Structure formats: C-alpha cells, structure tokens
Amino acid sequence: MPAYQRILLKFSGEVLMGRQDFGWDMHIIEQVADQVKAIQAQGVQIGLVIGGGNVFRGAQVQSTKIARSTADQMGMLATLMNGIALRDVLQSHGVQARLMSAWSMDALAETFNADAAKKALAQGDVVIFAGGSGNPFFTTDTAAALRGIEIQADVVLKATKVDGIYTRDPNKYADAQRLQTLTYEQVIQQDIAVMDLAAFALCREHAMPIRVFDMLKPGALERIIAGKDEGTLVSK
Ligand code: UDP
C-alpha cells in the first residue's frame, strides 16, 4: 500500500532545464515522466505544479514599461509551456495526463476546476496544474499549496536541490544533519525557508503536510511513496 493516496508534487522549472541555462533538457523531462509513471502504477493519484524559472520569471523584467503584474503573466505563461511539454512526454510514456490552466486557454488546456480535477485524479489521470495561481505577485510554491489544498491531497511534495532540511548548510558543514520531521512552529521559530511565506502560511492554516526532498536523487520519490525516511516532513 502506498503511504499516500493523493499527492501534489511541485518542482521548479529549473529542474527541467538540467545543466542548460534555459529551456528544456529532454533527458530530464523523460526522467521526471518515468518517475511519475512509476508511482502512478502503484495507484497514487498525482497532481503536478511546475514552476517557470527555466523560461521566465516576472522579477526578471527590468523595464519600467512592462508592469510587474504583466511580467508575472509572462512568467505564468512559462509554466504553461512546461506543462504542455510534460503532458506530451507523459502521454508518450503511456501515462494519461491532463493539463489544466489557471485561466481559460481553451485551445491549449482545460480551464482549472477543482471538481473536474478531483474526478480526473480519482480515475487515475495525472493532472498538471499550469498557470500558477492565476494571479501576479505569487509564485508556483503558492500555487502548489493552493492546488494541494483544493484537490485535498495528502501531502505537498516540494522538490528542491537539497534532499531535505538540515541543521546547517550541508554544502558548507560536514556535520550538518538532515532533520526527519519539523513542526510548522519550529519552521517559524528557526526561520527556515521551506516554501515562500504565502505558500507556507496556506499549508499551515490548512494543516497540509509538506515534504521537502530532492527529486533528482534516484529512487527518492518512490521511497517517499513507500513510506520510507526521505527528505524532511513539515507538519502539525
Ligand atoms: N507566477 C505568478 N503567479 C503565480 C505563479 C507564478 O505571477 O501564482 C509567475 C511569476 O512571475 C514567477 C513565474 O511565474 O516568477 C514563474 O514561477 P516561479 O518563479 O514560481 O517558478 P520556479 O522558480 O519554481 O521555476
């Protein structure tokens, strides 16, 4: 039996970029698709939120002639490009995948609807939630928290470059130790940046557990689904 029945998996656009400076590394996208396929085969219902940082982030715009809110729309479109790419690769790997956009984009994706998303998940489809939250000034972390709560996921799995939360920076200190669990209060007291603040506040308010892990670490996602010690769990 998998440890989770329904998950919301969030990873940044940079994951899809691999070692490149921009865009997509097909090898990595295929790797991600294979991992998703492997846990779907175990009966896990999977919602995905992908960032857009491999293409564009709103904060990159320096011009006073493009408003930040408009730039953020460009960033949200970047997440849609990632969603289209991953949907196609998932489908080519034999996974039934659907793409839902935060705002209407009829020719490209379904418009997000929590009810339809839950029905699709319940029938085993992987659902990719693109377009972030649909609002500027937010990030895809917040979109992940929001969609996770909306689809009543058991957990938000947040993929990072480090395989969990450590007592100190593991890249600098050899004696840094990975923490298996933390409470929301400990995260606040110790000022640990698990997700951005809006996302974290949403998860805390709705008691949505967050597991931080490294998706590119071989077998990590499957270990989480098997209920093994992997990454760091932040919960009540
Ligand atoms: N974005 C937004 N609202 C959202 C989610 C994303 O405006 O709810 C925009 C914002 O400009 C952001 C960009 O989309 O910089 C890409 O998202 P994010 O930075 O979270 O991507 P990641 O860093 O995870 O790849």
TrEMBL record:
<dbReference type="GO" id="GO:0044210">
    <property type="term" value="P:'de novo' CTP biosynthetic process"/>
</dbReference>
<feature type="binding site">
    <location>
        <begin position="10"/>
        <end position="13"/>
    </location>
    <ligand>
        <name>ATP</name>
    </ligand>
</feature>
<dbReference type="InterPro" id="IPR036393">
    <property type="entry name" value="AceGlu_kinase-like_sf"/>
</dbReference>
<feature type="binding site">
    <location>
        <begin position="133"/>
        <end position="140"/>
    </location>
    <ligand>
        <name>UMP</name>
    </ligand>
</feature>
<keyword id="KW-0547">Nucleotide-binding</keyword>
<comment type="similarity">
    <text>Belongs to the UMP kinase family.</text>
</comment>
<feature type="binding site">
    <location>
        <position position="160"/>
    </location>
    <ligand>
        <name>ATP</name>
    </ligand>
</feature>
<feature type="binding site">
    <location>
        <position position="53"/>
    </location>
    <ligand>
        <name>ATP</name>
    </ligand>
</feature>
<comment type="subunit">
    <text>Homohexamer.</text>
</comment>
<dbReference type="Pfam" id="PF00696">
    <property type="entry name" value="AA_kinase"/>
</dbReference>
<dbReference type="InterPro" id="IPR011817">
    <property type="entry name" value="Uridylate_kinase"/>
</dbReference>
<protein>
    <recommendedName>
        <fullName>Uridylate kinase</fullName>
        <ecNumber>2.7.4.22</ecNumber>
    </recommendedName>
</protein>
<keyword id="KW-0963">Cytoplasm</keyword>
<keyword id="KW-0418">Kinase</keyword>
<keyword id="KW-0665">Pyrimidine biosynthesis</keyword>
<dbReference type="GO" id="GO:0006225">
    <property type="term" value="P:UDP biosynthetic process"/>
</dbReference>
<dbReference type="InterPro" id="IPR001048">
    <property type="entry name" value="Asp/Glu/Uridylate_kinase"/>
</dbReference>
<feature type="binding site">
    <location>
        <position position="57"/>
    </location>
    <ligand>
        <name>ATP</name>
    </ligand>
</feature>
<feature type="binding site">
    <location>
        <position position="52"/>
    </location>
    <ligand>
        <name>UMP</name>
    </ligand>
</feature>
<keyword id="KW-0808">Transferase</keyword>
<dbReference type="InterPro" id="IPR015963">
    <property type="entry name" value="Uridylate_kinase_bac"/>
</dbReference>
<keyword id="KW-0067">ATP-binding</keyword>
<comment type="function">
    <text>Catalyzes the reversible phosphorylation of UMP to UDP.</text>
</comment>
<comment type="pathway">
    <text>Pyrimidine metabolism; CTP biosynthesis via de novo pathway; UDP from UMP (UMPK route): step 1/1.</text>
</comment>
<feature type="binding site">
    <location>
        <position position="72"/>
    </location>
    <ligand>
        <name>UMP</name>
    </ligand>
</feature>
<feature type="binding site">
    <location>
        <position position="169"/>
    </location>
    <ligand>
        <name>ATP</name>
    </ligand>
</feature>
<dbReference type="GO" id="GO:0005829">
    <property type="term" value="C:cytosol"/>
</dbReference>
<dbReference type="GO" id="GO:0005524">
    <property type="term" value="F:ATP binding"/>
</dbReference>
<feature type="domain" description="Aspartate/glutamate/uridylate kinase">
    <location>
        <begin position="6"/>
        <end position="214"/>
    </location>
</feature>
<dbReference type="GO" id="GO:0033862">
    <property type="term" value="F:UMP kinase activity"/>
</dbReference>
<feature type="binding site">
    <location>
        <position position="166"/>
    </location>
    <ligand>
        <name>ATP</name>
    </ligand>
</feature>
